[in-house]
Amino acid sequence: MKSHLIASALLIAAVTGITIVPAIADDASLQTIVDKDGNMRMPDNYRARFQFLGAWAIAAESGQGSKQMHIVYASPGTADQYRATGQFPDGAVLVKEVYETSTEDMATGTVSRESTLKGWFLMVRDSKHSFPKNKLWGDGWGWSWFDAGDPTKTTSTDYVSDCKSCHIPASSTDWIYIQGYPPLSK
């Protein structure tokens, strides 16, 4: 039965011109990030395996430069599927590194660069609402913050109070600020 479904999907893809690429290489990869209860941990070696999507500079509250840099990666195939369908596929994983910055004058002008890792923000796409009892899952995503000292244990307790408020302006784009990520552009 599974081979018939795969063959049907490939035929539909061939006829419509849609590229089918898994968001995660296999279910085993996702299981190392999300356990059976929906508890999340940072993916191993994501910088080597994931695609760089883009970076954001958060302006300093006063003076020149930036106070933070946010550098974002997506699991393999996520950008391809987003460009093809305009949707993030189930199982897609987004990792945002959050750094404090150092600002200094250089020959090119005042430059801010990442200095100290503060932590990671992790999102896992789940349109099926697989973990209704876990307060870190909702609105089609798993949401979690990890302090730099421990990528295996989230410090988030409830996505609504800990995460969602920062994403309200991006609610129309599936809670993701897609305008900052060139690989998502069609």
Quick description:
The chain is α+β, with helices and mostly antiparallel strands and 186 residues long. The chain contains five helices and six strands; from the N terminus they run αααββαββββα.
Percent of sequence in beta strands: 25-35%
Mind telling me which CATH architecture this is? 3-Layer(bba) Sandwich
Helix % is 10-25%
Work out the helix count.
Answer: 5
Domain Cytochrome P460: 45-177
Protein name: Cytochrome P460 family protein
Keywords: Signal
Signal peptide: 1-25
Describe the structure.
InterPro entries: Cytochrome_P460, Cytochrome_P460_sp. This is Cytochrome P460 family protein. It contains five helices and six strands, in the order αααββαββββα. Strand 1 and strand 2 form a beta hairpin. The longest helix is centred in the first third of the chain and has 15 residues. Helices cover 22% and strands 31% of the residues. The N terminus is likely disordered. It is globular, with a radius of gyration of 18 Å. The relative contact order is 0.16. With 186 residues, the chain is of the alpha+beta class. The chain has one domain: 3-Layer(bba) Sandwich (Chalcone isomerase). The chain has a six-stranded antiparallel sheet.
